[in-house]
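Reviewer 2 asked us to include a model.

Predict the structure of this chain.
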Amino acid sequence: MPQTWATSGVDLHLELAGRRVRAGLEAALRDAVRSGQLGPGTRLPSSRALASDLQVARNTVADAYAQLVAEGWLTAQRGSSTRVADRVGAADPAAEPAAPPAAGEPRYNLRPGSPDLSAFPRAAWLAAARRALAAAPSQALGYGDPRGRPELRRALAGYLSRARGVAVSPENIVVSAGFGHGLHVLSHVVAARGGTRVAMEAYGQPAHRDTVTAAGLAVTPVPVDGHGAMVAQFGDAPAALLTPAHQFPLGMALHPRRRAQAVAWARDTGGVVIEDDYDGEFRYDRQPVGAMQALAPGHVVYAGSVSKSLAPGLRLGWLVLPGGLLDEVVAARPLADRHSSVIDQLTLAEFITGGGYDRHVRRARLAYRRRRDRLAEALARDAPHVHVTGIAAGLHALAELPAGQDEDEVVARAAGHGLVVEGLRGYGAAGRPDRSALVVGYATPPPHAFTGALARLGALLAAR
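Predicted model (structure tokens):
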């Protein structure tokens, strides 16, 4: 008797067209389901068995299965087999084939700035929301304190003191709708005080520069070298924005000497340092560097959010303010009209105090550390001329391209292969960057897509 897919109980004939094996396998399986060749509930071979039949790598089959599960064609459960989804029936033979992904919706996304949204702890968050709502008094659902719910401010004070070394009390915390909202309020306070400019790292988020200029302030770009921002060039700016724990996007930590210089500048000039601790919990080679705010609580605004640790869609952030700024920020906050949901504030408070936040951060830290290691290993193997730089931290890495390789051309070629990755040039405040590099957001893809995204990036960079 000839060998068939006996492990699955089905015998299939698949035509793999094209030179890209995985894409061809995905297309063949979709066609088989669409045409009725594979009916709802049909059990498919194991990835090992199908790989053996097709004489391809097992990972190729596993990745193809994972992609089709994500698209809804197949279903899979741990410890069970992969099957055709019940809701996918045989299509009308006259129906048009499925359209390719719409423009602007790439299959593989390595854009920085987002965590793995598929890892959001839905069940734990829902349980925390139920406990929080059950315990909340009715008046908690009113307008309340413009600083935010006291339950959340108490929970944040305990967590930030313990985990990030922040000198904080609940009274000095103002809850914001993410870091961008907090920066918006702070920029208007600086302008209302008569300030005309903010010193900002020469490499950073363009949206943050836009927020500052929208408040009528000019941006003073501060050069960044291997030790971080060159704080001696803050000049006469009344405020300075820094990412000291993990410079975005270059990836170094601010040198201890420059931390001390920044604090001394603030004390000597009466200026304010805004510390954007956007991913401070995620350090992989050592304990995270503590918050700079603890060196001078009267001169440093500590800003954080759950945008990297949980999800940006929650729109929850916080400012830990010096006493001299607190009343002005509280007065300016309602003008921004971006209040975070009271229910989400109560839920986050319960999530923190119940230990769910710490558990989630520990799991995420391990997952992202492994992803960064895989990225570094893949590029060292496939594209040794590309160097991953920056400390082992955060959700992104800088992949420096060799001299003569233009990042715009690399980014364009990646887009042509369904891979989104960003170049360093878009993060520079002025002029052309002094290097060509890619800013790779290795946390962004869901697990089923990370292997494919990494493979495409390696292949892209290997072809010089």
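The chain is about 40% helix and 15% strand. Residues 1-10, 88-102 have pLDDT under 50 and may be disordered. We have added this to the supplementary material.
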